[in-house]
């Protein structure tokens, strides 16, 4: 797993860990690996999720989705290193569930339950340094 060195630990490994970490997002000449795939800073609003929703990582940095059915979330056009925000809102009926079809390293190995009340919301952030092979959740507000 690519990671930053830990202060007080990783004696003798700092250089290697930093090179591995920086190599995930940079070419050997120091340029950004993602420079060829610029992202829009837009908030992508999806008013009706339906049973499946594919999020295009090049179309925005934040996705706001109203759940109108149990929904399978997937990702496309994932750069080597990227992050995004996700806001999930229940519709007026509520009781909608989400299936995460991308690999997330959830704390405790399981996704948190999203609120099922009508019009309830949950906010997530995700980060990958491996072109989406694994996603790390950040601040989660449920």
Provide a descriptive summary of the structure in words:
The protein has 142 residues and is mainly β. Helices cover 7% and strands 30% of the residues. The chain is built from one helix and eight strands; from the N terminus they run H-E-E-E-E-E-E-E-E. The chain has one helix at 14-23; strands spanning 43-46, 52-56, 62-67, 71-76, 82-90, 98-100, 121-128, 136-137. Strands 1-3-5-7-8 form a five-stranded mixed β-sheet, with no helix packed on it. It has a three-stranded parallel β-sheet with strand order 2-4-6, with no helix packed on it. The longest helix is centred in the first third of the chain and has 10 residues, at 14-23. The radius of gyration is 17 Å and the shape is elongated.
Radius of gyration using CA atoms only: 17 Å
Strand content: 25-35%
Q: Can you list the strand order of the major beta sheet? A: 1-3-5-7-8
Give the uncertain stretches in residue-range form: none
How far apart lie the N and C ends? 28 Å
Whole-number average pLDDT? 87
Count of DSSP-assigned helices: 1
Compressed to H and E, one letter per element, the order equals: HEEEEEEEE
Largest sheet: 5 strands, mixed
For this entry, what is the oligomeric state of its chains? single chain
């Amino acid at each position: 797993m690519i990671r930053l060195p830990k202060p007080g630990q990783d004696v003798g490994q700092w250089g290697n860990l930093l090179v591995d970490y920086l190599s995930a997002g940079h070419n050997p000449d120091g340029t950004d690996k993602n420079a060829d795939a610029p992202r829009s800073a837009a908030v992508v609003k999806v008013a009706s999720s339906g049973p499946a929703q594919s999020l295009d990582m090049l179309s925005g940095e934040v996705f706001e989705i109203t759940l109108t059915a149990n929904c399978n979330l997937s990702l496309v056009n994932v750069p080597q290193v990227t992050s995004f925000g996700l806001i999930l809102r229940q519709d007026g009926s509520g009781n909608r569930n989400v299936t995460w079809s991308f690999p997330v390293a959830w704390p405790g190995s399981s996704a948190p339950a999203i609120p099922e009340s009508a019009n309830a919301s949950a906010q997530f952030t995700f980060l990958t340094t491996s072109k989406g092979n694994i996603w790390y959740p950040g601040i989660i507000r449920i």
